Amino acid sequence: MSRVCEICGKGKMKGNTVSHSNRKAIKHWDANLQVVEMEVNGEQKKVKACTKCIKTSKKA
């Protein structure tokens, strides 16, 4: 299964780690995904969601 948030679509990000001598190495960051039961269209469903989406849904 992919590491993508089912609500907002956030996934893997890519960038560079830069050393003191200015050498670049590619680094990957995964989204902080959690499996949570959420109410979708009136029914309980297990969803992979990023923590930002979980926090926002609890406010609503």
UniProtKB/TrEMBL annotation:
Instruction: Show the Pfam families listed in the entry.
Output: Ribosomal_L28
The yes or no answer to whether the keyword Nucleus is present is no
Where does the sequence pass through the membrane? none
| Record key words, sorted | Ribonucleoprotein, Ribosomal protein
Gene Ontology terms, MF aspect: structural constituent of ribosome
Cited InterPro entries: Bacterial_rp_bL28, Ribosomal_bL28, Ribosomal_bL28/bL31-like_sf, Ribosomal_bL28_bact-type, Ribosomal_bL28_sf
SUPFAM superfamilies named in the record: L28p-like (SSF143800)
Q: Which Gene3D superfamilies does the record match to this protein?
A: 2.20.150.30, Ribosomal protein L28/L24
A cellular component term, taken from the record's GO annotations: ribosome
Task: List, in alphabetical order, the GO biological process terms annotated in this UniProt record.
Answer: translation
Q: Which family does the similarity line name?
A: Belongs to the bacterial ribosomal protein bL28 family.
Q: List, alphabetically, the NCBIfam families matched.
A: L28 (TIGR00009)
State what protein this is by name.
Large ribosomal subunit protein bL28
Organism of derivation: Candidatus Caccopulliclostridium gallistercoris
Q: Which gene encodes it?
A: rpmB
